[in-house]
Design brief:
By secondary structure, this protein is mainly alpha-helical. It folds into 2 domains: about 5-65, Winged helix-like DNA-binding domain superfamily/Winged helix DNA-binding domain (Arc Repressor Mutant, subunit A, Orthogonal Bundle), CATH 1.10.10; about 70-120, Diphtheria Toxin Repressor, domain 2. It has helices at about 5-20, 25-35, 35-50, 65-85, 90-100, 110-120, and strands spanning about 55, 60-65. Strands 1-2 form a two-stranded antiparallel ribbon. A hairpin with a 5-residue loop joins strand 1 (about 55) and strand 2 (about 60-65). The chain is elongated. The N and C termini lie far apart (about 35 Å).
Length: about 120
Amino acid sequence: MKIQESAENYLETILVLKQRNGYVRSIDIATELDFSKPSVSVAMKNLVENGYIERDENGYISLLPKGREIAEKIYERHTSITDYLVKLGVDPKIAAEVACRIEHVISNESFVAIKKQIEKLG
C-alpha cells in the first residue's frame, strides 16, 4: 500500500518530536507543522486506523513498527539530502526545504546513489 506524502510528513514529525521531547501529542504536531488541531486530529485518526501509530489514554502518540519504518526512511532521506545539498553550497534553509519535497518522490536507486556521493564528500 502506497502511503500519502502528508501521512509520511506526519510520521516523520512524530519521530522527530519523540526524539526531541521524549513524548508526542497532537497539539505538539499541530504546533510543529503550523496546522490546525482539527486537521491533525483527523490525520491521527487515519494513522491509528491504518496501524501506523497508537494513542494512549492520555493522548500520547507512539509509532507502531510499520509507522516507525516509514518515518525513519523519510527522516534519513531528509537529513541526507539536506546534508548533501549543503555540502554542494546550498543555503541550509533552502536545502532543508528542497529535501522535504525530494524525500517523498526520490527512488531508492537514486537515494542510494546520493548516499554514495555523500560518503565520497566525507
